Each structure stands twice: as structure tokens, then as C-alpha cells.
Amino acid sequence: MATDQLVGFGLVTFSLVLFVYYTLWIIVLPFIDSDHGIHQYFLPREYAVIIPVAAGLLLLLFIGVFIMFVMWKSRKHAKKSD
């Protein structure tokens, strides 16, 4: 029980940190001078589009593979029962 809560807390914390980092990167950073030292902690701006697109494509790939696997297993199980 405590392990589940710890994993859940870790996931929520990771999501919050990622959200704050991305928000600062996309919304706040353009208004700060480019020679300011804070820019060294952020990736170049083109990655702000590339990373979410790649993550979305990977998510769609995993969802498609999961659906294909479930349909393949259910079809295999239906043939056994016939």
C-alpha cells in the first residue's frame, strides 16, 4: 500500500516538475535576454516542438501495439474455444 502511494507521489512530482520546466521554457524564457545565464539550463527552442511530437508518436505507437496485442490474444482465445 505504501509503495503504491510512493510511486504515485513520485509520478505526480515528476509531472509537476516537467510542467513547470516546460512552462518556463516556452512562456517565460522568450522574455528574458538571450545573454542571461538562465538560458544555459534550457535546451534550444526547436526542441520545444520536437520532444512533445516524438513523445506523442511514441505514445501512439505503444497504444497501437497494445491494441494489436489484445486483439491478437482475443482472436487466439476465440479460436481455441471453437
Automatic annotation (TrEMBL):
<dbReference type="Pfam" id="PF07297">
    <property type="entry name" value="DPM2"/>
</dbReference>
<comment type="function">
    <text>Regulates the biosynthesis of dolichol phosphate-mannose. Regulatory subunit of the dolichol-phosphate mannose (DPM) synthase complex; essential for the ER localization and stable expression of DPM1. Part of the glycosylphosphatidylinositol-N-acetylglucosaminyltransferase (GPI-GnT) complex that catalyzes the transfer of N-acetylglucosamine from UDP-N-acetylglucosamine to phosphatidylinositol and participates in the first step of GPI biosynthesis. May act by regulating the GPI-GNT complex.</text>
</comment>
<comment type="pathway">
    <text>Protein modification; protein glycosylation.</text>
</comment>
<dbReference type="GO" id="GO:0033185">
    <property type="term" value="C:dolichol-phosphate-mannose synthase complex"/>
</dbReference>
<comment type="similarity">
    <text>Belongs to the DPM2 family.</text>
</comment>
<keyword id="KW-0472">Membrane</keyword>
<feature type="transmembrane region" description="Helical">
    <location>
        <begin position="7"/>
        <end position="27"/>
    </location>
</feature>
<dbReference type="GO" id="GO:0006506">
    <property type="term" value="P:GPI anchor biosynthetic process"/>
</dbReference>
<dbReference type="GO" id="GO:0008047">
    <property type="term" value="F:enzyme activator activity"/>
</dbReference>
<keyword id="KW-0256">Endoplasmic reticulum</keyword>
<protein>
    <recommendedName>
        <fullName>Dolichol phosphate-mannose biosynthesis regulatory protein</fullName>
    </recommendedName>
</protein>
<keyword id="KW-1133">Transmembrane helix</keyword>
<dbReference type="InterPro" id="IPR009914">
    <property type="entry name" value="DPM2"/>
</dbReference>
<keyword id="KW-0812">Transmembrane</keyword>
<feature type="transmembrane region" description="Helical">
    <location>
        <begin position="47"/>
        <end position="72"/>
    </location>
</feature>
<dbReference type="GO" id="GO:0180047">
    <property type="term" value="P:dolichol phosphate mannose biosynthetic process"/>
</dbReference>
<dbReference type="GO" id="GO:0000506">
    <property type="term" value="C:glycosylphosphatidylinositol-N-acetylglucosaminyltransferase (GPI-GnT) complex"/>
</dbReference>
<comment type="function">
    <text>Regulatory subunit of the dolichol-phosphate mannose (DPM) synthase complex; essential for the ER localization.</text>
</comment>
<comment type="subunit">
    <text>Component of the dolichol-phosphate mannose (DPM) synthase complex composed of DPM1, DPM2 and DPM3; in the complex interacts directly with DPM3. Component of the glycosylphosphatidylinositol-N-acetylglucosaminyltransferase (GPI-GnT) complex composed at least by PIGA, PIGC, PIGH, PIGP, PIGQ, PIGY and DPM2. Interacts with PIGA, PIGC and PIGQ.</text>
</comment>
